[in-house]
């Protein structure tokens, strides 16, 4: 998508955070997004500077934003694949914020609606995609009213490469993330490429850090293979019992 470069330098923060009323119960000290959390290509996460100037400032990877609605306008339940719609892609800080500020926050979506953010190498955000099939996802269930900030922080952490330690890899370990808006809860999921305990444990710890989750926050993990077997994204997921540090 074409970035509106005149918009970004004067943007004080996301509409999500501007609309938030008080701190989230699951976050402490959440503030406006920092540009230093979005490193440009070929920069390490640790030494990425706060970016100035008129840009554009390239991200290390290209990402695609998707939308899914389980029910069609006629209120008929549609299949997962049929309900997915691509919104746009972005590969710079500017094009990300141009897209982001035109999206409704999760709190503005109807139940049974999902947002999906995935790496551009993933053709479709489904379990069976070659980059997804050997992985799985971490799941966090949220009470209503707190998802806007947490979703934004998760997206910023992903496109800012907060989860990856090998910038030479062709694809990041993180495939993408989703938020599923439901009647009585919202569910965020972080998808990764390889279902191995060392990798998933590191990702779990990073999620807790970047989202500033309380020790009481319950996290669940489910492999995509298990999801394909039982045809469910969230049913029969394994609750993580590791004490939060």
UniProtKB/TrEMBL annotation:
Annotated Gene Ontology cellular component terms: eukaryotic translation initiation factor 4F complex
Key words of the record: Initiation factor, Protein biosynthesis, RNA-binding
Single GO molecular function: translation initiation factor activity
Polar residues biased stretches: 1-13
Pfam families xref list: IF4E (PF01652)
Protein family (similarity comment): Belongs to the eukaryotic initiation factor 4E family.
Name of the protein: Eukaryotic translation initiation factor 4E class II
Organism field: Cylindrobasidium torrendii FP15055 ss-10
Residues annotated as transmembrane: none
Residues covered by region (Disordered): 1-37, 222-245
Signal sequence, start to end: none
Source taxon at top rank: Eukaryota
């Amino acid at each position: 998508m074409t970035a509106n470069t005149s918009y970004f330098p004067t943007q004080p923060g996301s509409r999500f955070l501007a609309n938030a009323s008080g701190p989230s119960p699951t976050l402490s000290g959440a503030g406006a997004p920092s540009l230093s959390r979005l490193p440009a290509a070929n920069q390490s996460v640790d030494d990425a500077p706060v970016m100035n100037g008129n840009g554009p400032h390239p991200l290390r990877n290209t990402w695609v934003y998707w939308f899914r609605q389980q029910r069609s306008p006629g209120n008929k339940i549609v299949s997962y694949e049929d309900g997915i719609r691509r919104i746009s892609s972005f590969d710079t800080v500017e094009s990300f914020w141009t897209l982001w500020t035109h999206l409704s926050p999760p709190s503005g979506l109807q139940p049974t609606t999902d947002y999906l953010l995935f790496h551009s190498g993933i053709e479709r955000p489904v379990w069976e995609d070659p980059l997804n099939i050997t992985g799985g996802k971490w799941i966090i269930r949220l009470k209503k009213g707190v998802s806007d900030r947490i979703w934004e922080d998760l997206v910023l952490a992903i496109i800012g490469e907060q989860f990856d330690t090998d910038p030479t890899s062709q694809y990041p370990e993180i495939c993408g993330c989703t938020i599923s808006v439901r009647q009585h809860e919202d569910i965020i999921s972080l998808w990764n490429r390889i279902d191995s305990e060392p990798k998933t444990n590191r990702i779990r710890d990073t999620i807790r850090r970047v989202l500033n989750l309380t020790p009481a926050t319950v996290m669940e993990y489910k492999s995509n293979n298990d999801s394909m077997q039982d045809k469910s994204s969230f049913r029969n997921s394994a609750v993580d019992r590791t004490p939060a540090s």
